[in-house]
User: What shape does this take?
Amino acid sequence: MKRNITYFFIVLSACLFCGFEANAEVFVINNENFSTYFGEDGYLKESVPAGSTLDFQGTFQGDKYSLFINKKVDVISSTHDAFFDSNSTKEERKWLKFNVVAGADSTNITGLEFLNCDLFVTGASNVTIDDIKMVSNMGGVGSGTGFLAIHTGADSVVVKNSYFENGGTGSSILVVGKGGKKAVFDNNTFKITGSSGNIMSANQFVGSGENPSHITYTNNVIDSETGSSGFMYGITVCGEGNLIEGNTINMKGSAITNQYGAVATKNIYRNNVITGGGTMTVGTYCTVEGNTVNSAMTLPEGTIATGNTFNADVTVSGKNAQLTDNIINGKLTLNSDSNTVKDNTITSSEEYAVYMGSKVGNKVTDNALFGAGKTGDAAVNYTGADATANVVERNGTTTEVSQVAAEDDLSISSQNGTVRVSGIADVSVCNLYSVGGAHLASVKASQGTVYFEVPAKGVYLVEVVTGSNKTVTKIVADK
Assistant: This one.
């Protein structure tokens, strides 16, 4: 008997340590026994204790299966076939609504599928939604809110590993509104095949409480087959402390932008890739790092832009911006004072690479600058500005990345599409890489000079390895 009691307390302690409820139960729910667990008002009955697992199985069709999760539970489908379908029309608008509300803090929802339904999280925090599928193709679903909406006392909600498709609702998809700060949207896929509102939106016009801020948008994929729309933005950002990182967005129009009517500042935009003609707009005093953008870009006051590839014109609209180690395949225009432009590669199809007009206090130094007719310092245009009002110096056609124990007489240069490496000592291996790291050529040589023919005008890395010593130099080849 003593042994059994000891075993009971060991098991109980383990359950409590792991965060399980002592009275946790598993309830298998289908469309026939639904009313056993949910009352006529749609709320969980008292017979379902907090900490339970609700295992939904099969199809739930029609708004009679709308429900309210008002206790901490785990929602799963062990049979992987839980399917919620409004089975309504845009005229009837009898949508099935899956609500997570006050009392349901720390609820987990995993593996459910929804067709033309709404999923709302209001009044419950620390809710996790994982591996769900939501498809909506009927006008009216999610109208005014988005068909997955998080707001009004719903902090720190996580939506991850899920698939969303909008086939023509005209409504937004994933919306975090007022009272929904610190949400996390990670590793989700969004497919747009018809009329849509915003795709991932921080929206101060939905819900009540503080404006949404400190939102994390990471590793999401947005793919839109539709044209540009003034009502559809990819990611909208509100407030400060937001992280927008690792997202891949293929769409026309505004791919990343500030929420209409909201102030967005002091956010981080890192390693996002935008294609399809989509644009990126950032707020003031933001960090913009490692992004690839193929449309014109405007950088406002206080922007710190590092390591980006901008395949179009860039305009600095506010003062005190810092641009370092970027590749700009277009012209750079400084429409403000007191900016720093250093260690960038700028290749413009216009006469000059950098246009400053009559602005003052700007420092343009140590860049590789190519205009259509001018290079280096001569590729910086000041119209009307005093020559001493800005610092323009040491801009040429190469920017050195790093050197480790380089030989004093090693020389690397480029002319007419040929990279020349001279002053090689002993037995060396010379490698040519693209700036993205692709290996293009390798030559093994003893004392003397090595030549590489580059495939096109652009930025290249030249690596010289001699024994344990290595030199890596970034060079711009003007083919």
